[in-house]
């Protein structure tokens, strides 16, 4: 590649899970620290970071079409193509292959190595292409700059990687082994997020409830410590694995008021033979017993999960078991996917891969059952009074959008501002959101210019 002007502006595009969103924010901060500015809305950037996801085939293929589009339509002011960095899980999984397949890419950087971006950018400016998919001993977290201004709801990655090796999943290969960040670092970062405007923090991890510190303290201890931060109103965590759902964490849902009544606990399928073939290491029954314990600790908890339809060998009767489980649990909201064979995973070479038409039909049936459950959950909330954290403006003038404690989207009108925690009565339910009536509120701490935002 010929040498080019070092980039003056950047754009980071993140795909996939919330941990990628967190990583994308951190990369943006790192680039800003290097004196590179975010590109203005609608303007071509000198450097584009595609922070990719490899979880399903479509997600991975998208990267190549995005690169093609950038070369064609993303020209810099001087007519040259932007510098392109591929980061995230496709970078980790395909490394050199991306370099071979996409000559327009200057650098490929895996999810554990992106703190090395600045030196890779310098090399790219000199015309050298580079790949870094190491999982270095020094962690990226130790070398990243401080947080800038954040919205009312912020992410904090506490744990990364996965040792579970479900037979369909790429994450153990793209993110590496489970690591837990240090307790004190997390408390410090949480305080900085709160100082920067966060009123809610969602603790993130591929198996967030597997987080342990060096003294063996579990996630509930971290939640307890964060709950002591005055201006922090809400704590959430995601994604959890059933096998790491400890008594301590379940009790935290009873004891710690700031821990929101919501649990994302993927089950993937409702049949034990399929779960065994997936290497999930829990059964339908052991999963249901965990939910019983969680509900005993926090009766109003909203439950969520992930499902895969059409895992190799799944029969119609086995799929029916999944529908039965969905109807039995009464989930508040869920994600559901068609099984996608991922190269290098054991399931990709299993016999009896399911044909697309069957997959489509199962996904439709599952989603109909999940939507019905979600609507029923929302309808059961009508009449409740709850706090809503205001996150943004709604579609109409004077309208606000925020989240209930149960992670439902709620819209309402009245005197409020982004970052306020307001008291709302839920008055109408749809499948995807609820309408609320504003009762009163507590303005965010830095809005001392106003008293209570109480209006009827
Ligand atoms: N660690 C989390 C989820 C990580 S991936 C857990 O174990 O629950 C997010 C979701 O993507 C998974 O829960 C699963 O439902 C889905 N998924 C992962 N691999 C997939 C594949 N090969 N095909 C389809 N869906 C997949
Ligand atoms: Fe993937 Fe299973 Fe690990 Fe979740 S627990 S990240 S689905 S391997
Ligand atoms: Fe995708 Fe990687 Fe997350 S594969 S779901 S971005 S861990």
Automatic annotation (TrEMBL):
Where is the Radical SAM core domain positioned along the sequence?
148-376
- What are the boundaries of the region Disordered? 437-456
Q: Which residues form the TRAM domain?
A: 379-440
InterPro entries from the UniProt entry: Elp3/MiaA/NifB-like_rSAM (IPR006638), Methylthiotransferase (IPR005839), Methylthiotransferase_CS (IPR020612), Methylthiotransferase_N (IPR013848), Methylthiotransferase_N_sf (IPR038135), MiaB_methiolase (IPR006463), rSAM (IPR007197), rSAM_horseshoe (IPR023404)
> Reaction catalysed?
N(6)-dimethylallyladenosine(37) in tRNA + (sulfur carrier)-SH + AH2 + 2 S-adenosyl-L-methionine = 2-methylsulfanyl-N(6)-dimethylallyladenosine(37) in tRNA + (sulfur carrier)-H + 5'-deoxyadenosine + L-methionine + A + S-adenosyl-L-homocysteine + 2 H(+)
Has the keyword Acyltransferase been applied to this entry? no
Which keywords, in A-to-Z order, does the entry hold?
4Fe-4S, Cytoplasm, Iron, Iron-sulfur, Metal-binding, S-adenosyl-L-methionine, Transferase, tRNA processing
Q: Pfam families from the entry?
A: Radical_SAM, TRAM, UPF0004
Q: Where in the cell is it found?
A: Cytoplasm
The family assignment reads: Belongs to the methylthiotransferase family. MiaB subfamily.
Instruction: Relate the protein's function as given in its record.
Output: Catalyzes the methylthiolation of N6-(dimethylallyl)adenosine (i(6)A), leading to the formation of 2-methylthio-N6-(dimethylallyl)adenosine (ms(2)i(6)A) at position 37 in tRNAs that read codons beginning with uridine.
What is known about its subunit structure? Monomer.
The protein in question is named tRNA-2-methylthio-N(6)-dimethylallyladenosine synthase
**Species, as recorded:** Novosphingobium aquiterrae
